[in-house]
Every structure is written in structure tokens, then in C-alpha cells.
Amino acid sequence: MEDGEVATGDSRDNVRVMIRCRPLSKDERTNEQKTIVSMDTEMGIVSVKSPENPEAAPRTFAFDQVYDQNVTQKYVYDTSARPIVESVLDGYNGTVFAYGQTGTGKTFTMEGVPEPPELRGVIPNAFNHIFEQISLIADRQFMVRASFLEIYNEKIRDLLEPKKMDHLELHESPQGVYVQGLSTVVVKCVSEIDHVMQRGKLARTVGETAMNHESSRSHSLFTITIDIVEIGPDGEPFVRVGKLNMVDLAGSERQSKTGATGDRLKEANNINLSLSALGNVISALTSSKKGIHIPTATAS
User: 20 to 30 Å CA-CA from 152: which of 23, 107, 222, 235?
Assistant: First the structure.
């Protein structure tokens, strides 16, 4: 039905939620299914009708931004991710991720398709944006690094070196959370960073479910780290580091709809468990209570 993109920051004011509603799929049209969702893009309101009781008043939900079925990929990028990328180029950290049920179009929103250019998603648009901006800034030097991992069945895999070890470990230092042993690649242009992403995608875990012919069975995290060197007021160089995390989450799903058994059931249970944990984190980040505990990650 819809996928959400969330931009995260250090306070509840920096967590923004956007909802995108995709059009009916070919299978849905074949089965003569009807749309029960309407989007008020001006007010940021989503209305959902009850399929069992069409005469009942629809339920309404408010979000920071609402995109209907006719929105372009470029508009989604410009209004959701572009401000975050701009802040990363100034040395801040930012995250964009797509969340929703399997088959709702999360991967299309995040990656899109290479051709035509207008169908490219958030990640390739970010690639172009970053290197376009770097080419225009004369008073700073930049070094861009990329890494790509997936979390599959609660284990972290390096998608750029998938055979290096079975799984990597998550650690925490005074500088923040990091994945020990995760490989990074220095990239100097759009084609190089795109090659890194395509290489990692070949190693990503996907599979067919009753709800999606090619469902992402893992959470993927593509991280761009930008080292920025500039001259300070004292004439000495100093370094700032910005980090952009772009996440394509595995789709949430119900066993009753997917008919999952065996490995697929194990995958689904782990996916839903981790998405539930993510929900707890978002709730804590957006809470108005002071001093609330922010849950930490447990994948290993």
C-alpha cells in the first residue's frame, strides 16, 4: 500500500516521516482489487476506508509529507533526502530509510531503475547530488568512502566482501556504533560509487514470498562517509566528517498472508522482530519525555 521514508536526527524535531502510496500492481488490477487509500498531499493526511464497511467514515493519519501515486522519483528525493545530503556535506550525520509491508515499493523508492533517469531512486540521486556539490565547492577538499552491509537473520554481512567471514560484530565506542571489520571503498565519482552499490546488490539476500516475487529478505545499509578538509580562521586545516546512511528495510509481513514455512518463516520472524525493535527506537526518539532510554541495536 505505502512505504515510509524516515529522516532521523538527534531530537524529535529531526525525525520526519513521509508516506508514499504506490499505484495498484498488475496482479492487483488482474484480481480487480480497489484502492482504499486517499492522499491529501497539501495537508499531509492519509485516509483509509474500511473494505468491509465502505460506508463507514475513513480513518485519517497525519504525516510530515504525503506522496500520492503520481509523484515523481525526483520530487521524492528533493523533498525528503536532498536537505539531509546537504547537511552531510556540511559535516553532519543523516539517515534515510524506507519502511513498510513487503511489496509496497521500498526498493523502488530507494533504488529505482537505472533507465530512464527519471525513475532513479533516492540512492542514485544522492550519488549525483554529492559529486555535483563537491565539484562546485572550491574552498574545501573531500574524500568520499562507501560501505554496504545487510542484516540477515540478525547477522551482519559485508556485501562488498561477502565471503570474508560468516558475520561481523557490532561494537560501540566513544565515537559511536560501528561494525568491526566492515570494508570501505574510496570513490571519486558517480560511476565508481554506483559500481560499489551494484557489486553489493549481487550479494544481497532476496527470495520469493506469496506477497512478493522478489522480496528483500534482509535489511541493507549503504553508508557514504565524507571527510571534509577546510582551513579554519587560524589558518590551520581541520577535518569534519559527515555520514549518510541509506537503508532499504526488509518488508514486514504476516504469516497468514505469506504462507511462510521453514527458512522463509524464520526470516519473517527475524524481520518482524527487528522492525518491532526499530519502532521502539523511533518512539523513544520522538518522545517528549526527557531522559528517556534509547534502545540499542542487538544484531551481531
Answer: 23
131-134, Cβ contacts within 8 angstroms, sequence gap of 24 or more: 131/189, 131/190, 131/193, 133/85, 133/86, 133/89, 134/89
Beta-carbon neighbour count of residue 123 at 10 Å? Answer: 25
Spatial contact of 265 and 121, defined as CB atoms under 8 Å apart: no
Bridge-based pairing of strands 237-248 and 93-99 is parallel
Per the annotation, does 101 bind a ligand? yes
More confident residue, 171 or 72: 72
Return the sign of the alpha-carbon dihedral for residues 23, 25, 28, 30.
Answer: positive
Tell me the C-alpha distance between 247 and 250, whole Å. Answer: 10
Instruction: Measure the CA–CA gap between 198 and 175, rounded to whole angstroms.
Output: 29
Q: Is 291 assigned a ligand-binding role in the annotation?
A: no
Question: Residue 128 belongs to a domain with what CATH number?
Answer: 3.40.850.10
Question: What is the pLDDT at residue 8?
Answer: 47
49 in a structural domain: no
Residue 4 has pLDDT above 70, yes or no: no
Q: What is the tens place of the pLDDT at every residue in 204-242?
A: 865 444 444 444 568 889 999 999 999 888 889 999 999
pTM: 0.80
Is 106 annotated to bind ligand? yes
Structural domains in the chain (count): 1
223 is in an annotated binding site: no
Which domain does 100 fall in, by range? 71-285
